[in-house]
Amino acid sequence: MESVEKFSELGLKDDDSKVRTKVARALGKIGDKRVCGALIEALNDEDSDVRCAACDSLGELQC
């Protein structure tokens, strides 16, 4: 598994919503479309900041 995929897998499942939000934002900046699936799953996160960050990153990546 590539490091960016591992980063998305672990970071978006962290217990801390602030970590999940920062990871979702970072994934958009990295620019690797292999994380689109993880970001789509993050749209169902319980925290609205995580959902918003995931949505923004999906737009940046044009997934």
Describe the structure.
The protein is mainly α and 63 residues long. It has one domain: Leucine-rich Repeat Variant, CATH 1.25.10. It contains 4 helices and no strands. Helix 1 runs antiparallel to helix 2, helix 2 packs parallel to helix 4 and helix 3 packs antiparallel against helix 4. It is globular. The termini are far apart.
List descriptors:
single chain; mainly alpha; Leucine-rich Repeat Variant; 4 helices
Q: Helices and strands in order, then pairings?
A:
Layout: H1 3-11, H2 17-30, H3 36-42, H4 48-61
Distance between the termini: 20 Å
- What is the level 1 CATH name? Mainly Alpha
Give the total of domains. 1
Specify the helix fraction band.
55-70%
Relative strand content? under 5%
Q: Report mean pLDDT, rounded to a whole number.
A: 94
Radius of gyration: 10 Å
Series of secondary-structure elements, N-terminal to C-terminal: HHHH
CATH superfamily: Leucine-rich Repeat Variant
Runs in which pLDDT lies below 50 for 5 or more consecutive residues are none
Q: How many DSSP E strands? A: 0
Count of individual helical segments: 4
Shape: globular
Counting helices, strands and paired strands, the structural category is: mainly alpha
Task: Summarize the structure in short.
Helix content is 70%, strand content 0%.
